Amino acid sequence: MNFSEERAQSWRADLRSAKKAKERTDIPRVHMPELDPEYRSHTRVEEVNLGLTPEMAMLEAQRCIDCAKPTCMDGCPVSIYIPKFVKQIEIGDFLGAAKTLKETSALPAVCGRVCPQEKQCEAQCIHTKMKKEAVAIGHLERFAADFERESGNISIPEVATPNGIKIAVVGSGPAGLSFAGDMAKMGYDVTVFEALHEIGGVLKYGIPEFRLPNAIVDVEIENLRSMGVQFITNCIIGKTITIEELKEEGFRGVFVASGAGLPRFMNIKGENLVGVMSSNEYLTRVNLMDAANPESDTPVLPGKNVAVIGGGNTAMDSVRTARRLGAERAMIVYRRSEEEMPARIEEVKHAKEEGIEFMTLRNPVKYIGNEYGRVTHMVLQVMELGEPDASGRRSPVEVPGKTELLEVDEVVVSVGVSPNPLIPQSVAGLEVTKWGTVVVNNDTMQTAIPMIFAGGDIVRGGATVILAMGDGRKAAAAMDEWIKANN
């Protein structure tokens, strides 16, 4: 169905008269179809969530009451015009909805899958004020993006006349891609430099295919290529080429989006044993280096008793990957209770359905190995919850004298990451915090070096895909203003 200009002027009135607000809010929220838990726990390449049918999407879109002041948009870091794309879905203009999404989002198919909508746009939905489930904005975003891709009628956002000004982007994760897309729309000559052999950053190496297929990411990247964005892989800014050399080659601005790929460990005895690794290493090797294949140059030994330390989304990705690699017992070990887990509720639900054990209020204090230096056991300190900490979550405290011995043959540590230190160390005059994050003006994302802007995990120290994308958009708008003011 085409969304004509005449129709565009009258759709609000038509939809309001067709179905009253009370009728809309009484419609139950649709639930995303999923692969069978037993089946999916043995396949790494098939996506768990199956997407909405057109009928399901149109029904869910009817739940939107078209608020005069759409508070859902207040929760969107990239300012998607949510009511417009939702109403376009309601009348069957699926391609129009996808086009609306692309006006502000470089990665709608990605965000529709991995964005924590329940804490952002959906948390601001008027339905929640009425004690009802929010409109499934994330599901609808995914539907529109998938429909466009599957139809073959992929729209390319309008790009301004080229201005000949060269801009460099360091890193091809969500912040870098979002920034690149916005700068390309404004007519800049954008080149993205990626240290790895694949474009996509954390979207490729950090998120398993069962949650975000690489093919989906590739389509979004091709969309950026069609807008004129250039990509250079296997290029480490600060090593292969320096920021100063980029400047000499005529680049007028640099956006640093090199992420937070430095893993953290707990500094406890036995962390150097074979079989103990970070979630960064584990997921990167499996997702990008074919490590699940025994013939791989860098195989991961499939553990039978695998413990993943942590309670975030990366921990869930790791433990669910371990299950798919053949773990007979795959466990989450988390020092707080399940209620304090930062992972998405959906990820916890999926993990439980797939047979993952949750050992909460437990914290590893020592790893034990055999004569070959391979981990065989871990000692867990039993915890209890004390008073809330600065984040509002109750702090875990030790239960004196109470420990447990757990048999393991593989441990994946997922307790946080630190920013990649290469750029801060290689650029004189760049301000960094004691945590290694780059200091920026929060309104513009500009660093102490005027031509260098930064965003995403290199600034935040670890955040969601959509927050990184929001940084990219903010930086693009600010860099455009700065370049025009200093032209």
If you had to describe this structure to a student in words, what would you say it looks like?
This protein is α/β, with parallel strands linked by helices and 487 residues long. The protein folds into 3 domains: 5-151, Alpha-helical ferredoxin (Fumarate Reductase Iron-sulfur Protein, Chain B, domain 2), CATH 1.10.1060; 166-261 and 419-485, FAD/NAD(P)-binding domain; 263-413, FAD/NAD(P)-binding domain (3-Layer(bba) Sandwich). 35% of the residues lie in helices and 17% in strands. The chain is built from 19 helices and 15 strands. Strands 3-2-1-4-15 form a 5-stranded parallel sheet. Strands 6-13-7-8-9 form a 5-stranded parallel sheet. The protein has a 3-stranded antiparallel sheet with strand order 10-11-12, with no helix packed on it. The longest helix has 21 residues, at 465-485.
Q: How many domain regions?
A: 3
CATH superfamily of the largest domain: FAD/NAD(P)-binding domain
CATH class of the largest domain: Alpha Beta
The CATH architecture term of the largest domain is 3-Layer(bba) Sandwich
* CATH topology tier name of the largest domain: FAD/NAD(P)-binding domain
Number of strands: 15
User: Overall pLDDT, averaged?
Assistant: 92
Low-confidence stretches: 1-5
Give the spatial strand order of the biggest sheet: 3-2-1-4-15
